[in-house]
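Lecture notes, unit on protein representations.

Consider one protein chain, 307 amino acids long.
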Amino acid sequence: MRRVRYEHTGGPLFLEDVPVPVAGPGELLVRTEAVGVTLPVVRKVIEAAEPIPLGGETAGEVVAVGAGVTRFREGDRVTGLCFGHGYADYALLNETMASPVPAGASAVDAVALVRSGLVALGALEAARPTPGEAALITGAASGVGHLAVQLARSRGASRVVAAVSTLGLGKAEFVRGLGADEVVAYDSEHWGEPVDYALDAVGGDLLTPAVAALTPGGRLVAYSSGGGTVRAHDLLMGAKSVIGFQMARIARNEPRLHERWREELWHLFTEGALRPAVHGEFALQDAAKAHTAIESRSNLGKVVLRP
């Protein structure tokens, strides 16, 4: 089978031929139909000291199951997060990380909706919004952010402010089409009227203006892999708070909540209340182009590989 990998920090990415992996205990062997490209993986390729397996959201057909698997069988269509080599014709998924793809939904729908949607919904839940509050979403045109905009609106946000890297590249029109009332660029001097809560997908230097955008008593949910520092003084002066959110913790420690959120996402999708957008579908050999779309912050929605 074909698999994408790289040999040193920064790439380049290349295809290699390797044997099809064998499903071990608790694992599913999936014939890959779609792979969601994530910012954390792109960052690790650029920054990690040693090469990592290129994983991510994976969707496809189960072709073999390992010992002890009880929830799935050959022929089932599933999606889940692959921690090993996911940029490949076949990938291994742990049964605990897999979920069924409903009839009528495509593999691309699954990778654009489930993992990114879980992060967006989980971050929103962490903010504990109440109807009528105003929301700020950073990274609003990204795979997670564009779903967060829609979810905040569906949870009764009175005003949704979308923060994006640039007002060009069609981003302003894109997020307005998803329900954003206002759009600001990261380097804008003023981010509009204060908001009650913010969901931050960017981190780094953007944390300071995101905290400044909060009304007194406002909450910032940080779920980015981009790091950054918040000054205690900025929190104390407005009695503001920062909440860290990590999806992996929910998946490990609260499986019932994880499943409930997943069911809610598919329900919203089926009802037409949540519309995952796909920026582009790239062939496996074009994985480097898929990474460039995210590195350049030019993507509108999810970036997907199609083996």
